[in-house]
Amino acid sequence: MTANATLERHGRDDLAGLFEGARRVVVSKGKKFVAFDLAPGAGLPAEVADAVLGPTGNLRAPTLRLGTTWLVGFHDDSWDRELSGSS
To answer: Contact 36/51 with Cβ under 8 angstroms?
Structure first.
């Protein structure tokens, strides 16, 4: 599934399907970021859903899927680390 958060709005009800199969979610907000390691088949924990949603209740942008890893929000260091494969 490909999503463009600027063109397509994804709210809390869409997250389970969107993040299905995700093993890692890295969420950046400002100068901070947090990584969540997910268990296969366990569903999306509420704390991850809370972190990936912006103040409007929609998926924060930018959002990028790299295989089973999702990057939500932008933070130079976290994106460099994940894109270089040295997480």
So the answer is: yes
Query: Which region holds residue 57: left if phi is over 0, alpha if psi is between -120 and 50, else beta?
Result: left
Q: Please write the tens of the pLDDT for every residue from 53-78.
A: 999 999 998 999 999 999 999 888 88
Paired with 37 in beta bridges are 24
Q: Report the 3 state secondary structure along 26-58.
A: EEEECCEEEEEECCCCCCCCHHHHHHHECCCCE
pTM: 0.83
SS3 of 86, please?
Answer: coil
The one-letter amino acid code at 19 reads F
